[in-house]
């Protein structure tokens, strides 16, 4: 008896080639529906339409076509049970050997700017998941192919096993299929949660494994990299031009670099150097090479072995400058051919292109014992027109520009966070200290004499005036902070005595 295959796919990658091999090499009969049947027929592949096979027409504009006993009986039959064999015979049903199904492009649809609720609902597949789950459940007897990447391996299985597949192969494909439908349902859940946040009481986390990483933060920790959803976005969609495979720490640092570089528009050349998720150098410049050199010189010691993020395509001068030291990774939206040749001489250097640096998740998820926490990512940045100048001395337009730069930087430093900047370049970073006084001291020590006439940003309010007085003694010109302490008046008084500018933003930017 001929093998029987059911082909009904949204992603038609490789489906013609698979259909040809099934018919010509293995003498399969193909049952197919809708656009898949048309694609196969156009390629000259003999196909029996689902409606002809079941004797029931497609109805409701194609919403109902495969939901029929002759389809699902042929998928779900346990051929080891005599009662199932009898049911198949009595109802003129043939068991399927292979089911090739993938789902409507729900995630692609909702990613479109003009997608309406009606558009999204129409892309919720019903028959597809039913066939996929039924086939995966019955993997002892049916092969489910839900990913075009598995077609070649399936054909090789047929060649090696006299037209059959191994149980191990079928079980792997079943696991893959269940993962796909789980991710699909979670994407729908997340979408409806966005449509109506007040009624959302479920949050699903799922992903497809991209890679088993060599190890986690330390060599004794196992780690893996997963892509959320079925559509590659963010780092899963990045192009790695060269270099060793990415490590766990690389990816964590790259994400920190991506988040801070997104603060700066692409028409302002900006470079960020990250070390252990904290920026050790951030700068803007007239050219990308100038911005990079300023960021590097801000803390050249820490920059060694760091991660660099750029908001413009890498050009030859910037590539030349970066190639002079050891860096772990570079990420930019693009890279010129000349720059590729320069960086290519450092074969271990990881160079990634992420065309959309803003393609990050809106949610921040942290695991805790027995569950997880979800918050919106801190995408807020307060502009000068919303600030409150609280000192007698008023800022100039140049002061406001510099304070905005410092404010953008400090929100990406681990709390307690202090950033000292001048000429839109970081001079000193105080990160992750248990008290704000310690962070101020570290940042000033790093800035040294350059603190004279510089700008200081604090991610949260100063609880006392001691740090303000320390800043004044070091020559800091202006301070930006959220305000909100019960002792704000003490800090304002100290700033006035020292002739400092101080502005309150009214918004805190803790980063734990």
UniProtKB/TrEMBL annotation:
The keyword Hydrolase applies. Keywords: Hydrolase, Multifunctional enzyme, Purine biosynthesis, Transferase. It comes from the Bacteria. Pathway: Purine metabolism; IMP biosynthesis via de novo pathway; IMP from 5-formamido-1-(5-phospho-D-ribosyl)imidazole-4-carboxamide: step 1/1; Purine metabolism; IMP biosynthesis via de novo pathway; 5-formamido-1-(5-phospho-D-ribosyl)imidazole-4-carboxamide from 5-amino-1-(5-phospho-D-ribosyl)imidazole-4-carboxamide (10-formyl THF route): step 1/1. It catalyses: IMP + H2O = 5-formamido-1-(5-phospho-D-ribosyl)imidazole-4-carboxamide; (6R)-10-formyltetrahydrofolate + 5-amino-1-(5-phospho-beta-D-ribosyl)imidazole-4-carboxamide = 5-formamido-1-(5-phospho-D-ribosyl)imidazole-4-carboxamide + (6S)-5,6,7,8-tetrahydrofolate. SMART domains: AICARFT_IMPCHas, MGS. Gene3D superfamilies: 3.40.140.20, Methylglyoxal synthase-like domain (3.40.50.1380). GO terms for molecular function: IMP cyclohydrolase activity; phosphoribosylaminoimidazolecarboxamide formyltransferase activity. InterPro entries: AICAR_Tfase_dup_dom_sf, Cytidine_deaminase-like, MGS-like_dom, MGS-like_dom_sf, PurH-like. Pfam families: AICARFT_IMPCHas (PF01808), MGS (PF02142). Its EC number is 2.1.2.3, 3.5.4.10. GO terms for biological process: 'de novo' IMP biosynthetic process. Residues 1-146 form the MGS-like domain. GO terms for cellular component: cytosol. The IMP cyclohydrolase activity resides in the N-terminal region. PANTHER family: BIFUNCTIONAL PURINE BIOSYNTHESIS PROTEIN ATIC (PTHR11692:SF0), BIFUNCTIONAL PURINE BIOSYNTHESIS PROTEIN PURH (PTHR11692). Belongs to the PurH family. This is Bifunctional purine biosynthesis protein PurH. The lineage of its organism: Bacteria, Bacillati, Cyanobacteriota, Cyanophyceae, Oscillatoriophycideae.
């Amino acid at each position: 008896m001929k093998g029987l295959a059911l082909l009904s796919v949204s992603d038609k990658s490789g489906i013609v080639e698979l259909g040809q091999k099934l018919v010509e090499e293995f003498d399969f009969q193909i049952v197919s529906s809708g656009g898949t049947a048309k694609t196969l027929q156009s390629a000259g592949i003999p196909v029996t339409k689902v409606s002809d096979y079941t004797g029931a027409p497609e109805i409701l504009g194609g919403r109902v076509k495969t939901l029929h006993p002759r389809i699902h009986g042929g998928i779900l039959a346990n051929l080891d049970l005599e009662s199932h064999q009898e049911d198949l015979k009595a109802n003129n049903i043939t068991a399927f050997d292979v089911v090739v199904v993938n789902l409507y492009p729900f995630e692609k649809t909702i990613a479109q700017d003009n997608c309406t609720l009606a558009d999204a609902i129409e892309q919720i597949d019903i028959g597809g998941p039913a066939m996929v789950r039924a086939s995966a459940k019955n993997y002892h007897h049916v092969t489910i192919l839900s990913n075009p990447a598995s077609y070649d391996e399936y054909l090789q299985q047929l060649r090696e096993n006299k037209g059959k597949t191994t149980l191990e192969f079928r079980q792997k494909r079943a696991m893959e299929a269940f993962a796909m439908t789980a991710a699909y349902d979670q994407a729908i859940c997340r979408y409806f949660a966005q449509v109506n946040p007040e009624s959302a009481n479920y949050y699903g986390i799922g992903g497809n494994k991209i890679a088993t990483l060599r190890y986690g933060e330390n060599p004794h920790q196992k780690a893996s990299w997963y892509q959320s959803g079925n559509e590659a976005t963010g780092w899963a969609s990045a192009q790695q031009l060269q270099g060793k495979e990415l490590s766990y720490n690389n990816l964590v640092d790259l994400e920190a670099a991506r988040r801070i570089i997104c603060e700066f528009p692409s028409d302002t050349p900006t470079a960020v150097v990250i070390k252990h998720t904290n920026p050790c150098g951030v700068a803007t410049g007239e050219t990308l090479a100038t911005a990079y050199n300023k960021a590097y010189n801000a803390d050249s010691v820490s920059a060694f072995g760091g991660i660099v993020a750029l908001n413009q395509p890498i050009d030859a001068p910037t590539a030349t400058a970066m190639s002079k030291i050891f860096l772990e990774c570079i990420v930019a939206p693009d890279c010129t051919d000349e720059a590729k040749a320069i960086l290519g001489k450092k074969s271990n250097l990881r160079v990634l292109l992420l065309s959309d640096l803003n393609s990050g998740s809106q949610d921040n998820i942290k695991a805790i014992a027995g569950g997880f926490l979800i918050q919106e990512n801190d995408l807020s940045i307060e502009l000068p027109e919303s600030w409150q100048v609280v000192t007698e001395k008023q800022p100039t337009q140049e002061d406001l520009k510099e304070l905005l730069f410092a404010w953008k930087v400090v929100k990406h430093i681990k709390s307690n966070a202090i950033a000292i900047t001048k000429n839109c370049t970081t001079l000193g970073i105080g990160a992750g200290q248990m008290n704000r006084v310690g962070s101020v001291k570290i940042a000033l020590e790093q800035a040294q004499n350059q603190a004279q006439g510089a700008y200081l940003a604090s991610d949260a309010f100063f609880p006392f005036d001691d740090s303000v007085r320390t800043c004044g003694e070091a020559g800091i010109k202006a301070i930006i902070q959220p305000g909100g302490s019960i002792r704000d008046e003490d800090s304002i008084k100290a700033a006035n005595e020292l002739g400092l500018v101080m502005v309150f933003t009214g918004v805190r930017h803790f980063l734990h």
